[in-house]
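Incident log entry.

Two folding requests arrived from the same account within the same minute. Monitoring flagged them as a possible duplicate submission, but the sequences differ. Recording both here for audit purposes.

Request one:
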Amino acid sequence: MKKILLGFALMAILTSCKEETKEKIDAAKNAMKEEVKEELDSAKEKAAAKLDSVEAQVKAKAKAKADSLALKGAEKMEAAAAKLKATVKK
């Protein structure tokens, strides 16, 4: 009789511990999911900020290049106009 009661008591202890362990595992999984989601969101935000920064730099360089080309074109047009005026006066 003692062995049967001892067996039931042991089974009850193992069963109750098993449920607590499952709960702890589920809690740990949920915590890990949240942590990974937060890290992914953080990485997305950093990547978006870096992309915006790079895009702004590229636009600034393109604008500077376009302005430079326009200035060179204007200088050439002025030189051609001056040359034309010189030939017309002769």
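Request two (distinct sequence, not a duplicate):
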Amino acid sequence: MDLQTIAWRDDHGRVAPPLLLYLLLAFLGRGYVIWVISLTQSADRAGLVRIFYPLQMDFIQSLITGLGAVLLFALVLAERRRKPEWLKAPFSLFKWILMMMLVLEGWQLFTRVDHTLMVFHWMSAFDALALFWGALYLYKSKHLQAYLDEWPSDLTS
């Protein structure tokens, strides 16, 4: 154990989830984030959603693909409490599910760009950049790998 991994530990001595994991899950589930934020705006709830999703079908697709991020966030919460025990098996597939969600998000980005007839839009550029950095983070992060390896390794104990 080196000094870097000590900084990753929480008060209970377990590897804490990385902050970038939370940001990646918020990016993948941004349809729900935008929907919840729009509920707080009483004047024009649909106006805020239209800023990010001009077409209603894109927003619905974002909610469908974002459901995986909500489920993965629930897995992170279950891991923090270390229960229920039966969630250890799905948690061991966390990285693969996250990778499939990034691919699905890339497909959704392509369809959204196709709907705009390949015209540049700042939101599409941000999505492409976030997808690239998310995939790179998923591939390279030692903190994420240490976090994902810890709870399923408790299966033997």
